[in-house]
UniProtKB/TrEMBL annotation:
Species whose genome carries this gene: Desulforapulum autotrophicum (strain ATCC 43914 / DSM 3382 / VKM B-1955 / HRM2)
The entry's keywords: Amino-acid biosynthesis, Histidine biosynthesis, Metal-binding, NAD, Oxidoreductase, Zinc
Pfam (any one): Histidinol_dh
Name this protein carries in UniProt: Histidinol dehydrogenase
Binding site for Zn(2+): 262, 265, 364, 423
Positions contributing to substrate binding: 240, 262, 265, 331, 364, 418, 423
Protein's UniProt keywords contain Metal-binding: yes
Similarity annotation: Belongs to the histidinol dehydrogenase family.
Length: 432
């Protein structure tokens, strides 16, 4: 990983390259995903099973597409007590955090004779997507929790999970136990774009949902983008990102490990250190070069740090924070003296991790906030997945005759200016 001075032309170019990396899909990807979606929309379960057989497991049939209760009960006997303890802690802490996000319906009387308000209701049905890394052998349990828990807190009655099966046609038991623990109603053995299509349009077996959430590869992301508008989605997420602001008091071994925790996700992931200490920059670079060699996913991590990683030496922490606000990173670590003195200056970030003992993985699994976060600079205008993604707001309005008479003339003036005579007449006819 190269050390850059910032601001400088070379450092600026590196930042621009990171900002421009985008989602990384091609026109061929787009056409393929559109074809998958249309096929599932047209042929339903048959297409869903065929794609699952082709790409994941030949053992899945229409009869076994939905996970049975027997499979869930069997899974409970296969997980260990350490997992159960960790799962209980995660579910409890995530539930507590997301419960604080609930909005209440309200009614107000701001003027004599006028009542306005807002009803907040959950959507009827939600679909949670959870990737199956390495053919389902390494289950992404946290994706189930991060999608399922806020949906349940919001009050969604029907939640179903889509996740690709292992080669033997089963779902990893850890995934099943997690889904059961958070109250998922139905689990289906399908992944990728065809799973998103099934959720968006419904099939003979899969219920149509109102909202789809959860991370995935480029095919999942494209599918969510295409069906957005037919259903609600959480966000269009790009490759993972981490930006660490560190001063001379930070531990370079810790910084290197945190950078690699995101670099191992994807060759297009971005891992950037911004520091006001050249000693910290050089020591972190040396530590990173040692640590990357020991990673199981070292080839992915190495490509990430070569292509999109950087160490930026800045004149002061204020410059570092200005750069962070410009990049609007998915994950921002503040490993500086008195981080709470600096956090109020952060305007754009998916999540902020404060202090030397708050590495990003704490937020990935167990801290409480959601780990589905805006990427690619979209933290400038969007937020983490949460309860709001599973609710909708309905406005309430009521006028008495006296209040109507008092405000009717102004409504007619505005309607006529817009050339909407029928709008004006709808009011005028009540004034006679």
């Amino acid at each position: 990983m190269k050390i850059y001075t910032y601001p400088s032309p070379e450092g600026e170019q590196r930042i621009c390259d990171t900002l421009k990396r985008g989602l990384g899909f091609t026109p061929e990807n787009q056409r393929a995903v559109e074809a998958y979606i249309e096929d599932v929309r047209t042929r339903g379960d048959q297409a869903l099973v065929e794609y699952t057989n082709q790409f994941d497991s030949s053992q899945v049939t229409r009869d076994t597409l939905k996970v049975s209760q027997q499979e869930i009960e069997e899974a409970k006997t296969l997980v260990d007590s350490d997992f159960s303890r960790a799962l209980d802690r995660a579910v409890d802490q995530l539930g507590t955090f997301h419960s604080r996000q609930r909005q209440n319906s309200w009614i107000d009387t701001p003027r004599n004779g006028v009542m306005v308000g807002q009803m907040v209701n959950p959507v009827d049905a939600a679909g949670i997507y959870a990737p199956g890394a390495k053919g389902g052998k390494t289950p992404l349990v946290s994706s189930v929790l991060m999608g399922g828990i806020p949906a349940r807190v919001a009050g969604v009655k029907s939640c179903c999970l889509m996740t690709p099966p292992m080669e033997n046609g089963k779902i990893n038991p850890y995934m099943l136990v997690a889904a059961d623990r958070v109250g998922i109603n139905a689990i289906f053995k399908a992944g990728s774009a065809w799973a998103i299509a099934a959720l968006a349009f419904g099939t003979e077996s899969v219920p149509k949902v109102d909202v789809i959430v959860g991370p995935g590869n480029i095919f999942v992301t494209l599918a969510k983008k295409i069906v957005s508008g037919i259903v609600g989605i959480d966000m269009i997420a790009g490759p993972s990102e981490i930006l660490i602001i560190a001063d001379k008091g930070a531990n370079p071994d810790h910084i290197a490990a945190d950078l690699l925790s995101q670099a191992e996700h994807d060759p297009m992931a971005s891992a950037i250190l911004v520091t006001d200490s050249m000693e910290m920059a050089t020591r972190t670079k040396a530590a990173l070069e040692i640590q990357v060699k020991a990673l199981g996913r070292r080839q992915i991590a190495q490509r990430s740090i070569d292509d999109f990683g950087a160490i930026m030496k800045v004149p002061d922490i204020d410059t570092a924070i200005a750069l962070a606000n410009r990049l609007a990173p998915e994950h921002l670590e503040l490993i500086v003296d008195n981080p709470f003195d600096q956090v109020g200056k952060i305007k754009n970030a998916g999540a902020v991790f404060l202090g030397p003992y708050t590495p990003e993985p704490m937020g990935d699994y167990i801290a409480g906030p959601n780990h589905v976060l805006p990427t690619a600079g979209t933290a400038r205008f969007s937020s983490a997945l949460g309860v709001d993604n599973f609710t909708k707001r309905t406005s309430l309005i009521n006028y008495s005759k006296e209040a109507f008479d008092r405000e009717a003339q102004d409504v007619m003036v505005l309607a006529n200016i817009e050339g909407l005579g029928a709008h004006a007449n709808s009011v005028r006819i009540r004034t006679k």
